[in-house]
Every structure is written in structure tokens, then in C-alpha cells.
């Protein structure tokens, strides 16, 4: 039996396309990438004919049909890169194309906001009104700062609260009194505590530092220094001792010119686990290693604790046990493709390792029978739960419909939690029950967890951030003062006290 066509009564009419919009009972508009450019097409169900509506030389996406011959689309008429000082044609604008006059599209937004990005048009009152989204901020000069706030969010999990900060890679200290994160430019490390909000470490340029994490016992912050999402580039792990004092010292812990990242200490703060491409060959496989948490490889070469032709990554040590949680594609099927549209094909699942005997169990599977990403696992402060970011609930927004950010790689999905047995690791094999915390159409990523509630008036960082703004550099303020877009980090704040 063909379940798709018989039970669900569906029929595939277009392959590798998206954003469908009905022009009539028999006409469908959609967008699709052909070659290097996106285009909007018209499909007639009665004849099976497909016609390209927009010119091949431009990018055109997210169609909103007015009728069977007219459609509103978002266009980019000239490609750009993030370092460009953009001209009008390089901004995303809304236009209306008419099949009868294909060379004379109606310009909607270039006359109102020529240097602004406009997204996802929609049609009202039979085409009398065209609506759209626009990324909006104050007009900026390059290098200006943008005030941004911490915000409480609605949680879909009764035991977990949510808090959002405009930044990336949030990291709470073990006692919950300090919050570190990097700005969206991956240039500086920020700290919020009872002494205020301030930069505690800064690099010379963008894409230079990310993924801060606290030593579980001492006032030491670890960071990854180097370009992100580039396995072929050198990436080192540094310690920032006495970080709360603002001394801005740093100590190199890794050696050997490899790609090293995602450090985490054991509960007494003496050992550090991290992932590295060393011994990974030309395919840059990644495995987990262990070294001294204060002097790093000055105390001897890092000890390898996993070994295989796979990617083990996103490792974190339990707050009170010799368990390490990490994400890996080690169970990827043998016939899985090596790349998916230039990126990894997924199959990332979450595993627990006993740091003493090195035994491993898989806790969360990777999308069952299809590729998926279950990444960035983090223990709850009591060690009884794990929070992850995962695309197990699918991604309902086409990435092309969203603002393109400097560090966008692929949609991560939503935040989920899973409860684990804290006493018997073997009982955590392939846990079936999940709790979904967020409902995003595209991405919530890199969560962290603290014992303080966002409603707790005695939480030091909470008192601070609810009353003050901060101004990390805005990396997406265009050089000519156009519009910009900001992304946020996500933090899980449990209402239960551990």
C-alpha cells in the first residue's frame, strides 16, 4: 500500500521546491533553486505545465499569489557578501510580477525603503494591499552599538522557564550567579553578575571567539578562539582565569595547531574534556580528548577518550558524576551521503559516556529513520535531565525566507528536554519520552540551564539584566546605515530548584 497517496491522499506535483501559493483552483506558484539562483515558478495542475515567472539572472523567493497570472515575490537583483557596502539592488525588495508583462514588474518597496531588506510578502483584499516583513533597527553608522535587552519568554514546559539574551552561547556559572555569552559578531565575551554587565575578553575582529563555559569549581572561563564552523582552520581553547575581576588574562591550553572546541570541566574543576580534529585525517573526523583544566597540554599531551571515523562533539561533563554527554554521528548509516547541499547530512544523536570505564550509551536517537540533528546537549543543574537543540520536530520555515546571518549554517530546530536515570547509565538507552520546550519555525540553539528562576528577585544576574540594557556591537549593521537583524541566544531556566 502506498501510505502517502492512499491514506493521506497526497500527490507530489513538484520536487525540491517550496513556499507554495495558490493563484486559482488549478494554478500554483512556488519557489525553487535552479543552478546558482532562486526563481519563482507557476505550475498549472490542469495541464502539468511549469513556467518560470521571474528572470533567471536574479534571486526571487517566497511567492504570494494575487491571482493566476500575478504574484508578489521578494527579489535580490544583485548578490552580495557580508563585507560588501551594499547598493540598492543588493537589498531584498518586494515586487509584483505579471505573466502578461514579465519584463515590467511593479516595484513595491524600492521607492519606500531602497536600503532595507523586506521579506515574505502577503496579499490582502484580492491584491489591493501587499504586506511584508522588514528587518528594522535604528539607522546606524558602521561600528555603532545597539541597545538590547534580556527578555522573558513563554515556556511550553511547566517545569522550565525561558529567558532570552541578544547574543550567542549563553553559559551560567554552576551556582547561577554569573552569566557569560558572546556577542553576535563572535568578537567579545560578556559577563553579567552582581557587579554589572561588562566585556571580560575581546578579540581583534569578528568571528574570533565563541562557546564560553565555566569551570565548575573556580572563577575560570574557557573559550574557543578562532573561526567558527570551519573544521580545516586552527581553533584553540583558552582559559580566562579570575574572569570576574576583569583582569582579561588568557592562557592557551591546547597545542598542535588542530581544530579544538567545546571544553567542559568535571565537577571538581580539575579535568577538561573537549573535541578535536587531531588524529582525524584529511576528512577531519572529531573525537573527544581530556586534559588538565588549568595548565592544559603544558601538563602533558591530551588523552584521547573516543576513537572512530566519526564526529564526536558538543561535550559536557555532568555537574555531579563522572558522566559526559556529547553529540555524535557515529551511528550514521554506511550509505548516508557525505554532504547535504554542501553541509553535513546530519544523523547526530546524543550519547552518555562513563569517564572512568569509557562505556557509552545512546540516549537520544537521530530522527529514527531519517537524517537529523540532535546537538548541544547540556545537563540540568541536578543532573536528572538533558536539554538539547534538535530538528526532530522538523523545520517549517524555508531558510531562504529568513535573514541570512553571518554564522548561519543550517537550521538547528527547537529546544527539547529528556529526563534520565541519574544512577544507572545503562537505563538511559534510547529514551523515548521528550518534552518540547520551544516552538520555533526555524531555530533555537545552544541552550544553557541554571537553578535560578526568572521570577526570583534574589538572583543576582536577574536583578541586573531586568533593569539595565547593554550594548554589544551589532555585527549586521550595514556600512551604509541600512537595516540590520539580530539573533538571540536561548537559556533554559528551570522553575524547580535543584
Automatic annotation (TrEMBL):
Alphabetized SUPFAM superfamilies for the sequence: DPP6 N-terminal domain-like
Superkingdom classification of source: Eukaryota
Signal sequence coordinates: none
Pfam families linked to this entry: PD40
InterPro entries: 6-blade_b-propeller_TolB-like, WD40
Protein name: Dipeptidylpeptidase IV N-terminal domain-containing protein
Lineage of the organism: Eukaryota, Viridiplantae, Streptophyta, Embryophyta, Tracheophyta
Amino acid at each position: 500500500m502506498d501510505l502517502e497517496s492512499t491514506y493521506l491522499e497526497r500527490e507530489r506535483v513538484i520536487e525540491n521546491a517550496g513556499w507554495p501559493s495558490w493563484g486559482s483552483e488549478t494554478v500554483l506558484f512556488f519557489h525553487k533553486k535552479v543552478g546558482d539562483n532562486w526563481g519563482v515558478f507557476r505550475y498549472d495542475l490542469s495541464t502539468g505545465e511549469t513556467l518560470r515567472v521571474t528572470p533567471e539572472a536574479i534571486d526571487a523567493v517566497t511567492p504570494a499569489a494575487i491571482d493566476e497570472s500575478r504574484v508578489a515575490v521578494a527579489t535580490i537583483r544583485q548578490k552580495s557578501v557580508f563585507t560588501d557596502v551594499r547598493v540598492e539592488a543588493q537589498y531584498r525588495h518586494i515586487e509584483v510580477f505579471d505573466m502578461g508583462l514579465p519584463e515590467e514588474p511593479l516595484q513595491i518597496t524600492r521607492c519606500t525603503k531602497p536600503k532595507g531588506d523586506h521579506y515574505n510578502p502577503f496579499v490582502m483584499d484580492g491584491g489591493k494591499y501587499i504586506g511584508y516583513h522588514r528587518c528594522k533597527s535604528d539607522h546606524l553608522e558602521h561600528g555603532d552599538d545597539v541597545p538590547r535587552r534580556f527578555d522573558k519568554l513563554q515556556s511550553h514546559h511547566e517545569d522550565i522557564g525561558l529567558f532570552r539574551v541578544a547574543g550567542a552561547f549563553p553559559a551560567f556559572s554552576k551556582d547561577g550567579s554569573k552569566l557569560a555569552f558572546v556577542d553576535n559578531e563572535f568578537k567579545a565575551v560578556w559577563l553579567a553578575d552582581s557587579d554589572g554587565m561588562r566585556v571580560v575578553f575581546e578579540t581583534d575582529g569578528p568571528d574570533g571567539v565563541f562557546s564560553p563555559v565555566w569551570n565548575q569549581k573556580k572563577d575560570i572561563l574557557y573559550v574557543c578562539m578562532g573561526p567558527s564552523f570551519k573544521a580545516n582552520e586552527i581553533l584553540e581553547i583558552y582559559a580566562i582565569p579570575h574572569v570576574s575581576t576583569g583582569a582579561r588574562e588568557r592562557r592557551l591550553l591546547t597545542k598542535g595547531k588542530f581544530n579544538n572546541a567545546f571544553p567542559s570541566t568535571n565537577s571538581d574543576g580539575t579535568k577538561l574534556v573537549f573535541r578535536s580534529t587531531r588524529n582525524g585525517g584529511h576528512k577531519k573526523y572529531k573525537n573527544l580528548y581530556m586534559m588538565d583544566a588549568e595548565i592544559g597540554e603544558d601538563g602533558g599531551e591530551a588523552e584521547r577518550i573516543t576513537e572512530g571515523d566519526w564526529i564526536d562533539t558538543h561535550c559536557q561533563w555532568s555537574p555531579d558524576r563522572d558522566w559526559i554527554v556529547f553529540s555524535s554521528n557515529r551511528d550514521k548509516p554506511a550509505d548516508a551521503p557525505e554532504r547535504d547541499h554542501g553541509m553535513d547530512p546530519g544523523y547526530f544523536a546524543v550519547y552518555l559516556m562513563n569517564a572512568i570505564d569509557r562505556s557509552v550509551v545512546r540516549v537520544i536517537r537521530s530522527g529514527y529513520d531519517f537524517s537529523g540533528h540532535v546537538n548541544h546537549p547540556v545537563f540540568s543543574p541536578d543532573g536528572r535531565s538533558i536539554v538539547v537543540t534538535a530538528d526532530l520536530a522538523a523545520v517549517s520555515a524555508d531558510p531562504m525566507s529568513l535573514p541570512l546571518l553571518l554564522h548561519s549554517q543550517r537550521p538547528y530546530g527547537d529546544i527539547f528536554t529528556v529526563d534520565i536515570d541519574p544512577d544507572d547509565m545503562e537505563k538511559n538507552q534510547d529514551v523515548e519520552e521528550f518534552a518540547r520546550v520551544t516552538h520555533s519555525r526555524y531555530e533555537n540553539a545552544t541552550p544553557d540551564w541554571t537553578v535560578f528562576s526568572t521570577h526570583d528577585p534574589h538572583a543576582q544576574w536577574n536583578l541586573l539584566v531586568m533593569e539595565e540594557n547593554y550594548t554589544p556591537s551589532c555585527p549586521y549593521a550595514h556600512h551604509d546605515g541600512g537595516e540590520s537583524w539580530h539573533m538571540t541566544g536561548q537559556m533554559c531556566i528551570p522553575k524547580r530548584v535543584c
